[in-house]
Amino acid sequence: MSRTPGRPRAFDRDAALEKALREFWRHGYEATSIAGLTAAMGIRPPSLYAAFGDKRGLFSEAVERYQRTHGAFTTRALAEEPTGRQAIERVLREAAVNYADPGHPPGCLIITAVVNHGPEAEDIEAELRVHRVAAKRAFAERIEGDVQAGRIPADTDVEGLATFYAATVQGMSRQSQDGATADELDRVATFAMRAYPA
Description:
The protein has about 200 residues and is mostly helical. It is about 65% helix and about 0% strand. Keywords: DNA-binding, Transcription, Transcription regulation.
């Protein structure tokens, strides 16, 4: 079926969303402009607004896509490993590889997209905080599972340990932005796992 004369060629929405995701990942929410987004996505502003609503709506879709793709390793590791120790170690080992992968911007979008921000980005920060809090809660649930199974002492500080591993992941993300290699980040994972109770 031929295209109607004069009608704009439809763009690949999924491919455009991936390009937008990488712009937000590379520059952060506030520093990413509509002009930068449309240039990266290969579309004009009216197409962006028609497809995604606005920059805020586009960012939320980008975060959702990140969670399903680049960031999905964390959810998989926490769901698939038989023990809390194995799950958390897998998260750290895979983060080392993922965060330093030269095929995309370094670090984690959820951790880095909004660090210092103005009042207009408060809701963005709140949205990302929900994801980070959920990840820490998932760490705690897996650690608590090891306590309940008798694999680690009953008096283990579950919340403290979960916070420690969440902070480790966040630090690894920052280190990757400073140029840390996958091997260097993997060493962080090795040291961090020494904190896990015997």
